[in-house]
Structures are given as C-alpha cells and as structure tokens.
Amino acid sequence: MTSVINVNLPEQSYEIAIAPGSLDQLGEKMTGLQLGKKVLVVSNPTIFKHYGERAINSLKTAGFEVASCILPAGERFKNLNSIQKIYDAALENRLERSATIVALGGGVIGDMAGFAAATWLRGISVVQVPTTLLAMVDSAIGGKTGVNHPQGKNLIGAFHQPRLVLIDPEVLKTLPVREFRAGMAEVIKYGVIWDAELFAQMEASKHLNQLRYIKPELIETILIRSCQAKADVVSKDEKEAGLRAILNYGHTIGHAVESLTGYRLVNHGEAVGIGMVAAGQIAVELGMWQKEETERQNALIQKAGLPTQLPSGVDIAAIIDALQLDKKVKAGKVRFVLPTQMGVVTVTDEVPADTIRQVLQAM
Amino acid sequence: MTSVINVNLPEQSYEIAIAPGSLDQLGEKMTGLQLGKKVLVVSNPTIFKHYGERAINSLKTAGFEVASCILPAGERFKNLNSIQKIYDAALENRLERSATIVALGGGVIGDMAGFAAATWLRGISVVQVPTTLLAMVDSAIGGKTGVNHPQGKNLIGAFHQPRLVLIDPEVLKTLPVREFRAGMAEVIKYGVIWDAELFAQMEASKHLNQLRYIKPELIETILIRSCQAKADVVSKDEKEAGLRAILNYGHTIGHAVESLTGYRLVNHGEAVGIGMVAAGQIAVELGMWQKEETERQNALIQKAGLPTQLPSGVDIAAIIDALQLDKKVKAGKVRFVLPTQMGVVTVTDEVPADTIRQVLQAM
After folding, report:
1. Which residue, B174, B189, B207, sits at the end of a domain?
2. Which positions bind Zn(2+) (chains A, B) (predicted)?
C-alpha cells in the first residue's frame, strides 16, 4: 500500500510516495508528471550497485531514455567539483530543459543532484529517490539543495523543489547501522519540535538503534509522521522566511561540529544529535524548558545509538567562532531553535555567548 | 532627471533607474530597499579603476559596509572558477542572508555576480550597475544569471532578479568602441522584434557606430526604449515559458558562432548581429519576411559598425552541430525567432536544416 503525503506549494506541489518495493515503480510514478524523455540518474557507486539496475529498468520500461552519473560517496565530495561532473554528464547526454535528474542516494547525492538540476539550463526537473533514512525524512523533501564550501556546510545552494519524492522503505535494509542512526536523529528532532506523539511512540519502543530490532509498523509510522512534519512546515514556509527555521533545531551547533571535524569524524545525524543535546541544555539554562524533558530527549538520542557528547579534541572556542559562519546568522547574532515543551519550539537570537560556552564545556 | 522603468513581477518588482551621474547616487538609491548593511562589490580591474571609488564612496556615505571582489575581465573568465572567487570573498567578508552583491561592470560581471548572489546561502540580494551598453539594455535586466560551460554558453545558471538596476549613461564614455557597437546589436534587436519606432529613429540618425557621433537625445531614447522593451517582455514572461523567447532573436546562431570562436574572435554583440542577419535571411527564404525589410535591418547593423558576415574559418557543419547544444533546443529541434514585419517576430522550430545550411553558406 502506498502512503501519499502532499507538499503544497504556490508554484509547484508534489507528492511524497511511501511504499515498500516502490523502487520498481519509479518510471511508472514519473509518467503523468509531464516530464521529457531524457533522464539522468545521479548516484554513488555503492547505492548504484544495489539499486541502479532496478531504477533504470523501471525508467526504461516506462519509456524514458536513461543515462547515469556516478559520483564518489561521502560528504567530503559534496563540492563544486562533483557538480561539474554532473554538468559534464548533462552536456554529454544533451539534457534539454525538459529533461529530469533522478537523485538515487542519500542526502549528499540528493543535495548535489538537486543543485545541478536547479542550475543546469537555469533549472530542470529533479525527482528524489532517497536511500537513507536521513534523506527520506529530511533532505529529499523541501527543495533545499547545495554543496559545501571548504569552510562551511551548504553555503552554496539554491531552492529547487522536486517533482516527486519516492520512498521505498525496503532499501533501508542495506543501510549501514551508523547511517540508520544518523537518520534517527532527524526523526527524534521531529518528535521534539513538532510531534510529541511520534516522540512518545519511539519512547515506547524497546529498541531504536537498529532497523532489524524495530517493528515494521513503527518504521512506517516514523517515515509517514516525519515526512508529514517536514511537508507541513515546508508548505507553510517554502523559503525559510519564518516557521521553517524550526527545522534547524540541533543544527546550529551541529553544523559547527560537523564542519570542525572535517565532515568525517562526526556525520550529519550524529552532529544533530549532539546539537540537540546542547540546544536542550541551553533551553534549560535559560529557564525555557524543563530538565526532565531534556532528559527524555537525551535518553531517546542515546537509545537510538547516537552520541550525546562532544567528540574529544573539538575546541569549544572554534565551535563558537564557526557559529558566526552559519547561514542562520543575522546581523552577527546566532539564531537558536529551543524547545519549550515536547513538540513545541521557539526561535531566538538572544542566547548569551557565555551560556553557549558553559553548556559546551559541560558536555 | 531620472527616467524610471518598472519591471513588474509576481514575487519581487524592481526599478530600472536611468540618469546621468547616477553612479554617485548608488548608495542613496539602495537605501529604502530594506537591504542589510553588508555589500560586496563585484567588478573587473578596468571598470573598478574607473568607477570603483565613486561607487564605494556612495555606498559608504549611505551607511553600507563595503568589500570588493575583482575578477579578471572577459567572457573566457565567465566560469565556475570565478564564481568560486566570489564565494571566497563572500565567506571572507561573512556575507549573511541580508547582504547584497553589487555588480559593477558589463554582462560578464553582471551574470556572474547575479549567479553568485542566486546561490550564496541559497540566495542573497543583487543590485545591477551595468557599465556597458549591452549590459544596460539587456543582461542587467530580467534576472538571467549564469556562467559558461567549456562547451556551451550560459549552460549553468539560475533566474535571480535584481533588487535595482542603476544606469548611468555617462559611464559609456569610457566604453571601447567595439563594446559600444556590440551593445548596439541588442538595441537593433529590440527595434526588429518589438519597437519599429525605435528602429526608425536609429535609421534616421546619420551615425550609429560611435557614441560621440550620436546625439545625446538618441542615446537617451535608445536606453529608455530598449529597457522598456526588455521590461515589457520580462514582466509578461519571467521564466521564459513563452514570449520571452523572442529576446533570443539572433542568438540561436549567434551563440553557436560565439562558442565556436572561443568567445574571443567574435564578441556577444557581434555574434548577435551575425545571427540576426542569418535569421532575417532564413525568414526571407521561408517566405515569412520581405527582402526589403531584411535589407533595412542589415543596413542598420552595418551602420552600427557591426559585421554582417560569418568570420572566416568558422565551419558551417560545426555551427549546425553546436545548435543542438543550445538551451533553446526542444526534443532535438532548434528553435528560431524569425521576423514577420518590422517590430514583430514569431517563434518556430520548423526551420529545415538545409535552409540553415544554405543561408550560412551564402554568408
């Protein structure tokens, strides 16, 4: 059975379709969207080995002409060089304005394929087929695309909404455990910022740190409720003028930690987990959130197998300096998303630097 | 006196302000647009030497914090490396989302500064201060931004409207004659596609090939009527869904010629002039346009000091092959804009390859 979540936007709305085995229906799902014949599948070697053939067969059966562009895996390749490779493939395969890029992979692939689609011929269509939990519940939805600058994450990018997001939960079976846990960080985030019921359901589960220990129904709930949360927020604020900022919960310090560890030692989800622990504690210090609720949050992060402490060797002064480079900085003030009760957050740029320092020192 | 032309768009409208000496009012004109304090001026060494200080003084007097990024001059530097340099300057000067990039220069600077603004932090403001005739009447207006791929012009880009276009006709005094003529190609284009009266006024002028031989009132008319033509078309079709295609008159073959000569031998305006001669003749061959009108067009192109023949050594088969790479290709068919009477054009993808070949061979 397919669960469909609509992302409603003024210029172009689209569906998030969630169904086991749906990878084989990719081509079929794309017909009816009035896309041109040419498709460029962008992926990485590991994912392409697992799922490339099925995706391509499905596209060909539906009548698409398919080429592929395989980029090296990993956040450190999320740069303009990789984008240049997609442009080269687009040129070689003569992608016209009616062509479509299909992003088959995790967040890195989705962000880069989306950015290339946003900027090739000033914008062609993109379809997101996320293969990691993180990409399924977060990065594939909402139209944020981009690459990293050597000195800061996602500093280069564009808003470019996909025409379709197709989620096949079965592909999570090949996802490494660490990557699964990284995705759980974003799921927990939705619980804290938007959906206290989702949070409670995860709390009630005995295990949360490996796919195979989690009931399939809970996985389904996690996917549906997380995508719904993201779709709700994005539909209300496509270009991050206001509400959408709440999705950055845990990301302010998270991005700094990720950047300072060279996008290697700590992955995005782990950094978000650490950032949520820090933000929760900042909220407690400022008297905005109850200590018991922070502890509930931190316990869930731990149950998901995620770190709750700063990686050793990361310099706290460097984190504070890196915060200034964050896209969310406004007039030099760092913007924080802070919880006030489970499922509700507020946005503030009034966090004293001393508080940030103290909280980080205690981690 | 300032002439103001409005570009009306659903999301963000803006003004084109034309006034002699207005470079010194840049800062003043930018206040009131609710821009942040930080401004990055992007320019090239020649233009910056002439006008950088005046622009920066004006901005500083109005209270802006100003940094600059100077890129090498020329179409061959319109690439991702130059964009990377703007990103680096943006990072170094900590440009936040509220910051503004000011493009001070010709079309190359405007396109690159616009693309960097479109993609830095997923989009910051850009103000266009065009210093060439071509940029004033064409590229600074309408939000098309981008860079070249080694194998094709403007293949990489984004739509990103400026917040203001400020035109100071006095800066044309330092524009090399060849560049002035290149701009006249686009002005003649507006005459042919949109404004038969503008065409007639230029026909009535004794000289058209050097700024100093043309009456100041005609220069003013040229700027105002050209900007108005561009604003009219862009307001009706921001993202090139239909009408805007007519602005590509002369550009189909023009882009191919420019690309095949390595963006050096023939500049953009010259290529457009050649492209208009070719397109006019194609229209005649297809029985769509009168021979006498083509001759009027070609005479005006010549009076502006522009070439009307293909540069020697350019391979016609290579031009025809290059047409396939054009952004305007749809399902493999090359789209041509063809005149039907002075001031009126039509768009067609039904031009036989043989006709294109014959016309080019006769040039």
Report:
1. B174
2. 186, 251, 268
